[in-house]
Amino acid sequence: MLDIQSIRADFPILHQEINGKPLVYFDNGATSQKPVVVIEAIEKYYKEINANIHRGVHHLSQVATDAYEEARLIVKNHINAAQLHEVIFTSGTTFGINLVANGFSQMLKEGDEVIVSHLEHHSNIVPWQFACERSGATLKVIPMNEKGELVMEAYDQLLTDRTKLVAVNHISNALGTINPIREIIDKAHKVGAAVLIDGAQAVPHIKPDVQELDCDFYVFSGHKMCAPTGSGILYGKEAWLNKLPPYQGGGEMIKEVTFEKTTYACLPHKFEAGTPNIEAGIVLGVAINYLNSIGFENIEAYEKELLKYATEKLQEMPGIIFYGTSTEKASVISFNFEGLHPYDVGAIIDKLGIAVRTGHHCAQPIMEYYKIPGTIRASFSFYNTKEEIDRMMDALKKAQSMLS
Ligand SMILES: *Cc1c(COP(=O)(O)O)cnc(C)c1O
Known about the structure:
With 404 residues, the chain is α/β, with parallel strands linked by helices. Helix 2 packs antiparallel against helix 10. The chain folds into 2 domains: 136 residues, Alpha-Beta Complex (Aspartate Aminotransferase, domain 1), CATH 3.90.1150; 255 residues, Type I PLP-dependent aspartate aminotransferase-like (Major domain) (Aspartate Aminotransferase, domain 2), CATH 3.40.640. The chain has a 7-stranded mixed β-sheet, with helices on both faces. A 4-stranded antiparallel β-sheet has the order 13-14-17-16, covered by helices on one side. Strands 1-2 form a two-stranded antiparallel sheet. The two termini are 41 Å apart. The relative contact order is 0.16. The protein is globular and about 70 Å long. The protein is 41% helix and 17% strand. The structure holds pyridoxal-5'-phosphate (PLP). GO terms for molecular function: cysteine desulfurase activity. Pfam families: Aminotran_5 (PF00266). It is an enzyme of class 2 (transferase). InterPro entries: Aminotrans_V_dom, Aminotrans_V_PyrdxlP_BS, Cys_dSase_SufS, Cysteine_dSase, PyrdxlP-dep_Trfase, PyrdxlP-dep_Trfase_major, PyrdxlP-dep_Trfase_small.
């Protein structure tokens, strides 16, 4: 079991008052808070290590390079990649998806098809629209049902030998649905399509095993898993990363440059042009070590408890409407109250110190499906407590009585 009080002591930001009330931070789906080990590692980097990597022969450059490459190894082990050079540092999920989509835009042709799902974040929709517009390929969408699950029979119908790539999220940020990605990946491979998994919302809650999943690409952001913004990972199978053209040109990604022809560096450097966010990359490794020291099994079990507790409490409220009621769910609850605008509720409970997200959560097609402007989304992390959920319930009751 988790010692929540000692975990909470690791997160300085949680111990403050907002509008005169103790902060209850339930916007973990947007970004996570950072533990002291992460904050101290950022400071240590700039106080003791800062230098550019892979370049100088001087001592600090070597120390920074070693720390950066050590972080790559931590990520490799964490996601169980087969090879170190299959782990590419990026600035986040959005960058990783754009990198892959840009590569595919040069490899797709008319008549080819790309499949996304109705449950995607905009960052796993728009880059594929770009790729299809540029290449003449067609974008297809796996539909969702009322419970916020993908309709797998429809997916079966969409898959043909024209399908070149399937891009779906592991966990929906707007609804919390955990998608059956093993099945999605296996079926796509049967028709010869590659699969990109958007793991942004999964990595804070579970430890992905990319070899076991057999996905071709897995992308995520560091900032949702206790690491700084500006850190992120693109995992790709070696064969795909070799096939994919480089995304950005510049320093670090070349083997040899002449005005006639440039040859590219090998993996992973082919996709790491320019000076990266060195500190964020190094500290991503620190954050992953921190999460593993707590243990993902513990995190999952505890967050499930929070989800169950909050769902039961919310169910008692009059006029509540839940969005996303799949049995396979992460600790994310999207809801509204009959007749009340989510923004109004969000604004009132903010005055009471409760931070939730209101709006479309960068997933407008889902809102369109339910014919709503947005939802109230409470997303829980392992550092949250049942007492905090009780405080949210009190605040919601107050909001409801004020607004009706
Ligand atoms: C947050 C999120 C993204 C975008 O991540 P960035 O860090 O903003 O690049 C993409 N997909 C999902 C499912 C997300 O939750």
